[in-house]
Specification:
126 residues; 84% helix; mainly alpha
């Protein structure tokens, strides 16, 4: 049962992160006219920082006093997730007859969610 609550907490945290990610990506891409992949990285980075803090305190209730090391692990997991996220977006959006950028981004977020939860549960906050 604890696992289900952790997944739900991680998911709720992820939804907030997704709102931050999408919002910042949209602002950078559409209003500031920044390259869509750089805009994606900016949105992702802001979401990662938010998600680490909430997941540390609420989802995984970490008492690790070495929060710098823990954040580095979270960041490493997240950076791999960013690479995965970008590859998925590129694969679905840039191909001939590719899908809409934001729909590709949504698919990427779902797949990366699974990666991030498992990696953080088994590596970052174990």
């Amino acid at each position: 049962m604890d696992l289900i609550f952790r997944i739900l907490k991680f998911g709720l945290t992820g939804l907030l992160g997704m709102a931050i990610d999408f919002g910042a990506t949209w602002l950078c891409k559409e209003k500031l006219k920044i390259n869509k992949y750089i805009a994606n990285a900016v949105g992702f980075s802001l979401a990662v920082t938010n998600n680490y803090l909430i997941n540390r305190i609420w989802t995984f209730q970490s008492t690790n006093t070495h929060w710098g090391t823990e954040f580095f692990k979270f960041l490493a997991v997240s950076l791999f997730g960013l690479v995965l996220n970008t590859v998925i977006i590129y694969f679905f959006h840039q191909r001939k007859n590719g899908i809409n950028f934001y729909l590709a981004k949504f698919f990427a977020i779902v797949l990366v969610f699974i990666w991030n939860f498992l990696a953080n549960m088994l590596f970052t906050f174990k």
